[in-house]
Design goal:
heterodimer, A: 3-stranded antiparallel sheet, B: alpha+beta, Flavocytochrome C3, Chain A, domain 1, 5-stranded mixed sheet, 16% strand, globular
């Protein structure tokens, strides 16, 4: 644990801009700046993520680290920052972790098998608006990994369930629905993520507010797949 | 900066004949690769956004052996993900008079007659297949109660042809491409290299045959050899430091390909997006776009009087200037981006801007809330309003948003022919990284369309024609070694300066200079000033930059320093290109070339061409590609 003092923090700064200011100073002093992942800085790419005062992405709900602003902290506050901590997310350096386990879960079945050029006209299959909207809500997952960092079991259930739910709600996702659920859940286990015990910490920190009932959908599909 | 003029580019490889038959003709004439041979052919795809992700996935599906690279920790992060508004397609599902021809027409006109008719027509044709593909992948587009896809009118279009997924269309389309890519990774046709940055292109026997990349975790310099290389590395808007691009977006891949012989086309064409959140302080690291779909219901205004410091709610209607509605009654708040941006700059230059520093205009939802109710407005724009409040701390349901233009997209990029092949055989360039289809101004919801058209449909056909002539033999070992040494030398040089300024401080200064002198409005004087100042700043950079750490580790300071170094060289070419194009067109506004009403004035007699720059040994060489318009008559754009 290292303590840094940061001066000149404006309330309109984002959390990452505060770290930029600190890093600029560290470079000039010849120190190594703090390594952290970030890219879009508008809350959608899912690259940033750190545990701030014990909470993944900080206390403001439904907000990624890059969208958290310093006006939510008191002047002079001491802030603790840690990387995501979970065995399947090894730390690369400082606050940078390796989340490639998420990619491998998607590789296991988080897709519809439809090669380019093979699709029928988009209007050939109508989709009930309610289903399309619910599928969209699940599909907004940004793959940041906060759910894993917050879970006492280090479970990736919310991430995995979000993709399974998104595709299960659409007619295009039906042919592979059960094989998908089984393959993705098995891969999640193989990566060393823990099981879900319904503590709900994941959904509380999720920047996109993916609801916990996605996990129920996943479990239901998984059970059906195993009963076959 | 001195330049010379080289030979004209006469042949872009577009087929002749009726425009609606050209792409069919090209597809049929393209040679095919035997399925058994495909897996012996290696293709490198750099970048995993809409263009690169869809291309790598599709090439994998076709059976090629693909290596895909991205600088992020996973291909799903590419900045296409941040596109909000939507994607155009000529489906005419509304029966409101849309057609392939109309999308083609609007795009050629919107590009201010500086794009190629053949390319744009193909883009409009392919647009309909993109929607089919995305829906089949499970992209959850907005739907109506009948279960059919919803569309909206967007960014200056008078038909409703924009498909969308709330304010996250780019995210949903990118995840569709990403999932297709992951499927191919699982199938073993694509090998993924995340956290790798391309630092040079390998050319052997005149052909692009591979790349030199740096493993950003270990610092290892790697060589990757292939039969063809595809660059899908996005735009260069971050040359301005502040832009709506992701922090990591950079020009290094295309710039270093340019240094190896690929022509760079129309570098000065940059798009300034009218609706972004204004700068709030010196520490600002990026600018955030607010989808221009907001202009469908929001009304743009400034106070009628200069320096009016009253709160917006205290300014009565008769003392407000809804300037877009006033100047452009036909299009009102929906005028294209270049027009809306410049109008905002003009009212701010008059001293009527609002917010800190007077660099902002209001985007007001008061009337929409009164007309439709707060709930309806929330349904449409809720997530955008939340985003605005999170950043500014102000509630847009109660006080109007403040917006200001910001750099958003670059229409320029590496020159490509109809096959999307650069001037280096075997080097293909797709998506924002090429210059292709948007001319001097890109219309809203057309970037997603072009990226996916290139990646899913165009490149997979045209690259086959190139690869069918292969294999191209062994790669010259000396060429590989030379490229690797060049990369290492540059890294060593950056690390050895050990000066007093950070890479970011140089980047900020360069960006400010570009914004002031080569931004929304350019003059001969400002561009000459920039061309004088950039070399001085670059010299200072190489003398005084401080890069901490070593080359053999994860070193984000080193990564940034390398990118900033390339931005200097690109900035210079942008200013030169802007200087010699003395007309105004699309996103390129030369103050010397405007009509009596202050609108952009094109000079078709002298500038109806693409400016393709070659990097010669004695400075840039300009090659002009003449543009001809057989179908859409060249007219001065008018949105009044």
């Amino acid at each position: 644990m290292v303590t840094y003092r940061v001066e000149d923090v404006s309330p309109d700064m984002s959390f990452l801009e505060m770290l930029d200011v600190l890093n600029e100073r560290l470079i000039l002093e010849g120190d190594d700046p703090i390594a952290f992942d970030h890219d879009c800085r508008e809350g959608i790419c899912g690259m940033c993520g750190m545990v701030i005062n014990g909470v993944a992405h900080g206390e403001q709900r439904a907000t990624t680290t890059c969208q958290l602003h310093m006006r939510h902290f008191e002047d002079g506050a001491e802030i603790t920052i840690e990387p995501w901590r979970a065995a399947p997310f090894p730390v690369v350096k400082d606050l940078v972790v390796d989340r490639s386990a998420f990619d491998r879960i998607i590789q296991a079945g988080g897709f519809v098998s439809v090669p380019a050029g093979s699709a029928p006209d988009a209007h050939s299959i109508p989709v009930r608006k309610e289903n399309a909207d619910a599928a969209f809500d699940a599909a907004t997952c940004i793959g940041c990994g906060a759910c894993v960092a917050a879970c006492p079991n280090g479970s990736a259930s919310l991430f995995t369930a979000a993709k399974i739910t998104h595709l299960s709600l659409l007619p295009q996702g039906q042919p592979e629905r059960l094989t998908r659920a089984k393959a993705m859940v098995d891969q999640m286990d193989a990566e060393g993520f823990g099981g879900c015990t319904n503590t709900g910490e994941c959904t509380a920190v999720c920047p996109k507010g993916i609801p916990l009932d996605a996990i129920a959908q996943m479990n239901s599909d998984y059970l059906k797949a195993n009963a076959k | 900066m001195k330049y010379t003029e080289g030979s004209e580019i006469q042949d872009t490889k577009a087929p002749s004949g009726p425009i609606e038959e050209r792409w069919e003709k090209r597809k049929f004439s393209a040679k095919l690769v035997n399925p058994a041979n495909k897996r012996k052919l290696n293709v490198i795809v750099v970048g995993t956004g809409l263009a690169g992700g869809s291309a790598a996935a599709t090439l994998g599906e076709l059976g090629y052996n693909v290596k895909s690279f991205c600088y992020q920790d996973t291909p799903r992060r590419a900045h296409s993900i941040a596109a909000q508004g939507g994607i155009n397609a000529a489906k005419n599902y509304r029966g409101d008079g849309d057609s392939i021809y109309r999308l083609f027409y609007d795009t050629v006109k919107g590009g201010d007659f500086r794009s190629r008719e053949s390319n744009v027509y193909r883009l409009a044709q392919v647009s309909v297949n993109i929607i089919d593909q995305a829906v089949a992948q499970g992209v959850p587009f907005a739907r109506e109660y009948g279960g059919l896809l919803d569309t909206r009118s967007f960014g200056g279009a008078q038909v409703s042809r924009t498909f969308y997924a709330r304010g996250q269309t780019g995210q949903q389309l990118l995840l569709g491409a990403y999932q297709a890519l992951e499927r191919q990774i699982a199938a073993g046709t694509v090998t993924m290299h995340t956290r790798h940055e391309m630092l040079d292109l390998i050319i052997s026997d005149g052909r692009a045959r591979g790349v030199i990349v740096r493993d950003m975790v270990t610092g290892e310099i790697e060589r990757h050899i292939a039969d063809a290389v595809v660059l899908a590395t996005g735009g260069y808007g971050n040359v301005f430091f502040l832009s709506t691009n992701a922090k990591g977006c950079n020009t290094t891949a295309i710039w270093r390909a340019h240094e190896r012989g690929a022509y760079f086309a129309n570098p000065c064409y940059t798009q300034i997006h009218p609706t972004c959140i204004p700068v709030s302080g010196e520490y600002q690291s990026k600018l955030t776009l607010m989808s221009e779909s907001l202009r469908n219901d929001g009304r743009v205004w400034v106070p009628l009087r200069k320096n009016d410091t009253r709160a917006p709610g205290d300014i009565p209607d008769e003392e407000r200037d809804y300037y877009l509605e006033r100047i452009y009654p036909a299009f009102g708040n929906l005028v294209p981006r270049d027009i809306a941006s410049r109008a905002a700059k003009n009212v701010c230059d008059e001293g009527r801007g609002v917010g800190p520093g007077g660099l902002g205009v209001y985007l007001d939802f008061r009337d929409a809330i009164n007309r439709l109710g707060r709930d309806a407005v929330e349904k449409k724009y809720g997530n955008l309003f939340e985003m605005y409040e999170r950043i500014t701390g102000e509630n847009p349901y109660e006080v109007p948003m403040r917006i200001y233009p910001a750099v958003h997209y670059t229409m320029g990029g590496l020159w490509v022919d109809y096959d999307l092949q650069s001037t280096i055989p075997g080097l293909f360039v797709i998506g924002e990284a090429n210059f292709s289809d948007h001319g001097a101004n890109r219309l809203g919801a057309s970037a997603l369309m072009q990226g996916l058209a290139d990646g899913y449909f165009v490149l997979p056909t045209t690259i086959g024609d190139y690869l069918a002539a292969g294999p191209f033999g062994d790669v010259d070992e000396e060429a590989v070694a030379e490229a690797e040494i060049k990369v290492r030398t540059k890294i060593d040089r950056l690390l050895s300066v050990n000066g007093h300024r950070t890479p970011d401080s140089f980047h900020r200064e360069l960006g400010k200079l570009m914004w002031d002198y080569c931004g929304m409005e350019r003059t001969e004087e400002s561009l000459r000033k920039a061309l004088e100042r950039i070399p001085e700043l670059r010299e200072e950079f190489w003398r005084d930059v401080k890069v901490t750490g070593t080359a053999e580790e994860l070193n984000q300071v080193l990564e940034r320093a390398g990118r900033v170094a390339d931005f200097f060289d690109l900035a210079e070419l942008m200013c030169l290109d802007a200087l010699i194009r003395t007309e105004s067109c699309g996103g390129h506004f030369r103050a010397e070339s405007q009509d009596a009403d202050g609108e952009a004035l094109r000079d078709d007699e002298n500038f109806a061409h693409v400016s393709a720059w070659e990097r010669g040994p004695d400075g840039p060489v300009l090659h002009k590609e003449p543009l001809e318009y057989e179908y859409v008559k060249m007219t001065q754009r008018s949105y009044k």
